[in-house]
Design a protein that fits this description.
By secondary structure, this protein is of the alpha+beta class. The chain has helices at residues 12-31, 58-64, 131-143, 178-183, 185-197, 223-243, 324-335, 337-344, 350-353, 385-388, 402-418, 436-441, 451-459, 462-468, 470-486, 492-499; strands spanning 36-42, 48-54, 66-68, 94-98, 104-105, 112-121, 147-153, 155-161, 202-207, 213-218, 246-249, 265-275, 307-311, 363-368, 373-378, 390-393, 445-446. Among the domains are: 12-128, Glutamine synthetase, N-terminal domain (Ubiquitin-like (UB roll)); 140-146 and 308-499, Creatine Kinase, Chain A, domain 2 (2-Layer Sandwich), CATH 3.30.590.10. It is 34% helix and 19% strand. It is globular.
């Protein structure tokens, strides 16, 4: 594994190199009145956990890590603990090492900086359950074949007046209405300023359907960068909300009788070493626009002489104008969607959201610009399709660990390419409005309607288990079964209440 300056094994020279980089970064941060750094990782339940260090200890943290228990991998959303075959109990220790090239001041938390962390064992080897490392490995497997992926998460959240455990929407204007911007204009202004100051390239912000709900879209980047940015955006939203005496919820189902929060994933496959399409030089953003390279855009899209990565989702002879590789990548994801839900819709509450005719993508089908298909294909406007065409996975939500979710998606797409899969006929209607016979005739299957069904599909999926590794795959299933048992017999209202403020 080579990413963010983190080698596969931390030996003496690697530790010295990381320490020297961190010492320089610490001097810069101290000059900006930063006093502490939050090192974050996301657990299997999708909750961002942290350990923090004073800036003066950053050099040591980078070289030698910060200690933490492996047991966090089996925490449930209520902080109770289960045990799996590979982790559980009070023994053992891991070391958190900050990703120094993702180290940024958090404008929403004055005096604080943020760095995602990679977890190592004490012997200097990468922890097999570290989701960031798993995603790095999947990206490297694609790169070995001359391919890369650009990705971004749409972040949906609902903002509530503070005080109490219930949800009380902090704004009341109509869905997508300008009224909601006016109601909370100061809050949204401060959010955009904080994100910009933290280096996040925001593409758009708008009110969403449910009361108090908003969505923000950011520029696409490499998969690890996209997951890092998703964490930073959410924590910035959380901090700015608190500063305005409000509370943000990213739960899949904030209230049982309203639409939930999705975390749609946008993906485009890029191929190296071929003639670049003419026209746009942008990268696909979270809403399918050509839109810059985001925080992690360190490489040029086009190499000298007009050759470089080409978007495989456009300019081909395959379905909807995809290349053969682009179509196979999409088909691989579509084929594995039932199993992918165990990482992308990982909470009991996820299945209160994942219902037909709510733009949640409850059926395993695809279609150009079809917002009811679990896999929406975004073509982009005429003239920018070479840079804009991408896939949107609509059935994922805010309880997902973004690193695990992207690692599984890349593995599914990579398998699709290797198997030379093709897509079925696209669906251009709301599949929920078709009769069961009509859906059967068109090969449209509903996605799992419960977390238990998704876990069963995941455990039977050898491709995903091989990609994630047996330790991670077993832990995912263990944690999911733990949440199922925790909420067994709970009403939808009780499920929403337990989940509301956890993610």
């Amino acid at each position: 594994m080579e990413d963010s300056g983190h080698p596969a094994v931390l030996d003496g020279p690697a530790r010295a190199r990381l320490g020297a980089r961190a010492a320089e970064a610490a001097r810069r941060l101290a000059g900006e009145d930063i006093v502490a750094v939050a090192l974050t990782w996301v657990d299997v339940s999708g909750i961002t956990r942290t350990k923090t260090v004073p800036v003066s200890r950053l050099e040591h943290a980078a070289a030698w890590g910060v200690g933490m228990s492996p047991v966090f991998d089996v925490f449930l959303l209520d902080d109770s603990i289960v045990s799996g075959r590979y982790v559980g109990g009070p023994t053992g220790d891991l070391r958190l090492h900050p990703a120094l090239d993702r180290l940024v001041p958090m404008a929403a938390l004055p005096g604080w900086a943020h760095a995602p962390a990679t977890r190592y064992a004490q012997d200097g080897t990468v922890h097999p359950l570290d989701a960031r490392a798993l995603l790095t490995r999947e990206a490297a497997r694609l790169a070995a074949d001359g391919r890369s992926v650009r990705a971004a998460f749409e972040i949906e959240w609902a903002v509530s007046e503070s005080g109490g455990d219930d949800f009380s929407p902090a704004c009341h204007g109509p869905a997508y209405g300008m009224t909601r911007i006016s109601e909370l204009s100061g809050y949204l202004r401060d959010l955009l300023k904080a994100l910009a100051a933290s280096g996040v390239a925001v593409e758009q912000l708008h009110p969403e359907y449910a009361a108090g709900q908003y969505e923000i879209s950011v520029a696409a980047e490499d998969p690890v960068g996209a997951a890092d940015t998703a964490v930073l955006v959410r924590e910035t939203i959380r901090a700015v909300s608190m500063a305005h005496d409000m509370v943000a919820s990213f739960s899949p189902k904030v209230e049982a009788d309203t639409v939930g929060n999705g975390a749609h994933v946008h993906l485009s496959l890029w191929q190296d070493g071929t003639e670049a399409h003419g026209g746009s030089e942008g990268l696909v953003g979270a809403e399918g626009r050509a839109g810059g390279e985001g925080r992690a855009g360190r490489e040029s899209l086009f190499a000298a002489g007009g050759r470089g990565p080409v978007n495989a989702m456009a300019g081909g002879d395959g379905a909807a104008g995809m290349t053969a590789a682009g179509e196979a990548f999409a088909a691989g994801i579509l084929e594995r969607l039932p199993a992918l839900l165990a990482v992308g819709a990982p909470a009991v509450a996820s299945y209160l959201r994942l219902v037909p005719s709510h733009w949640a993508g409850a059926f395993a089908c695809w279609g150009p610009e079809n917002r009811e298909a679990a896999l929406r294909f975004i073509t982009g406007a005429e003239g920018e399709r070479a840079g804009a065409a991408n896939l949107e996975v609509k059935c994922f939500d805010g309880a997902a660990n973004p690193y695990l979710a992207l690692a599984a998606l890349l593995a599914a797409g990579r398998h699709g390419i290797g198997a030379e899969l093709t897509l079925p006929e696209p669906i251009g209607v709301d599949p929920g409005l078709l009769s069961p016979d009509e859906r059967a005739a068109r090969g449209i299957e509903p996605l799992p309607s419960s977390l238990a069904d998704a876990v069963a599909a995941f455990e039977a999926d050898t491709v995903l288990r091989e990609a994630l590794g047996e330790a991670a795959a077993d832990t995912v299933a263990t944690v999911r079964r733990g949440e199922i048992a925790l909420l067994d017999g709970a009403t939808p209202q009780e499920v929403a209440a337990v989940t509301r403020w956890r993610h």
